[in-house]
Automatic annotation (TrEMBL):
It comes from Actinomadura macrotermitis. Transmembrane segments: none annotated. PANTHER family: CONSERVED PROTEIN (PTHR40758). Residues 9-132 form the Mycothiol-dependent maleylpyruvate isomerase metal-binding domain. One of its GO terms (molecular function) is metal ion binding. This is Maleylpyruvate isomerase family mycothiol-dependent enzyme. InterPro entries: DinB/YfiT-like, Maleyloyr_isom, MDMPI_C-term_domain, MDMPI_metal-binding. Residues 145-243 form the MDMPI C-terminal domain. It holds the Pfam family MDMPI_C.
C-alpha cells in the first residue's frame, strides 16, 4: 500500500474500531494486552494518534515525550469515546497528508520521513482493533491487502539489525537450519524468514523451511503479531523454532 492508502487506513480502521466496541464494557480485560482494560487500550490508541500528529506537525527532530501513549489509566465507566478516537485519527491523517510522504522528521531507526509514521499507525491501529475485538467479544475481519501490508511491515521491522544492539538476546534466534515459512490458506500470499546468517532475512514468497505456518490470512496476521497462539494455524515441522521466533519478534 502507498502513503495515501496508509493515511486513509488510519481513519478507516479507527472508524471500524468504534463500531466494533459500541456498547462494550470498558472495564473488560484485553487478553492480548495483559493488565489493560478495553478503556485503557482505547486511551492508548487515541493518545498514540495525537502523539504522532504532534511529531508530524512540528517536524520533530528528536523523540517527543509520550506519556499520553504509555499512561493509560482513566475512567472506564460509560461508553467508548467514539468521537475522540475518530478525531485523533483524522488529525493524524490530515497532518500526514499536509506534510507529504517525504518530509524529514524523527523516526525510530533510519526511516526519517513521514511515510514511516503513516504506515506504522495504519498497522498499529489495525492490530489494536484486533485487540479491542478480543476484549469486546466481537469478530475481526480485514481486507487481504491491508493484512498483507501489516505482515510485510512487521517482518521488515523485526529484521532490522539495530535490534541486536538494543536487545542482545535476539541474536539467540540465529542458527543453522533455522528457516520459517508463513502461508495464507485463502490468498496468494506467503513469507519466508531465514535465520541462518549473521542477520535476519525475510522475503515475500514461499519456500521450503524447517517450520511452516499455514492459516487464513487474517489468522496468520494475528499469529505473526502474537495476538493468537500458533494453535490457531496449521504448523508443520519444527514447532519449537516457531515458538522461539515468536518469543523474540517484537517492535516498540
Amino acid at each position: 500500500m502507498d502513503f495515501g492508502r496508509h493515511c486513509t487506513e488510519i481513519v478507516a480502521q479507527t472508524e471500524r474500531l468504534v463500531r466494533d466496541v459500541a456498547g462494550a464494557d470498558l472495564r473488560a480485560p484485553v487478553p492480548s494486552c495483559p493488565g489493560w482494560t478495553l478503556g485503557a487500550l482505547l486511551r492508548h490508541i487515541g493518545g498514540g494518534h495525537r502523539w504522532a500528529e504532534e511529531v508530524v506537525r512540528t517536524r520533530a527532530t528528536a523523540f517527543l515525550p509520550d506519556d499520553r501513549v504509555r499512561k493509560v489509566d482513566g475512567d472506564d465507566s460509560g461508553e467508548a469515546p467514539a468521537a475522540w478516537l475518530v478525531q485523533g485519527a483524522a488529525g493524524l491523517a490530515d497532518a500526514l497528508r499536509a506534510a507529504g510522504p517525504d518530509a524529514a522528521l524523527w523516526t525510530p531507526f533510519d526511516y526519517g520521513t513521514t511515510a514511516f509514521w503513516a504506515r506504522r499507525f495504519a498497522n498499529e491501529t489495525l492490530v489494536h482493533r484486533a485487540d479491542a475485538t478480543l476484549a469486546a467479544g466481537t469478530g475481526f475481519t480485514v481486507a487481504a491487502d491491508v493484512a498483507a501490508d501489516a505482515i510485510d511491515e512487521w517482518m521488515e521491522l523485526d529484521a532490522l539489525p539495530q535490534h541486536f544492539d538494543i536487545t542482545p538476546r535476539k541474536r539467540g534466534l540465529l542458527g543453522p537450519g533455522r528457516t520459517l515459512a508463513f502461508e495464507a490458506a485463502d490468498a496468494d500470499a506467503a513469507w519466508s524468514v531465514d535465520l541462518t546468517g549473521d542477520v535476519i532475512a525475510w522475503r515475500r514468497g514461499g519456500a521450503r523451511a524447517a517450520v511452516t505456518v499455514r492459516a487464513p490470512l487474517t489468522d496468520l496476521l494475528l499469529v505473526v503479531y502474537r495476538r493468537r497462539p500458533p494453535s490457531a494455524a496449521e504448523v508443520t515441522g519444527d514447532a519449537a523454532l516457531l515458538d522461539l521466533w515468536l518469543d523474540h519478534v517484537a517492535f516498540g
